[in-house]
Amino acid sequence: MIADLNNLVRLKEPQIKPAAEMLGRAFQDDPLFTHFFPDASERKSKLPYIFKFLIRYGVWYGEVYATSPNLEGVAVWLPPEKADMTLRRMIWSGDFSILFNLGMKFISRQRSITDYILSIHKRHAPFRHWFLQSIGVDPMFQGKGYAGTLLKAMFARIDQEHLPCYLETQNEKNVSIYQHYGFKVVEEFAIPGTEFSNWAMLREKSS
Question: What is the CB neighbour count within 10 angstroms for residue 75?
Answer without folding.
Answer: 26
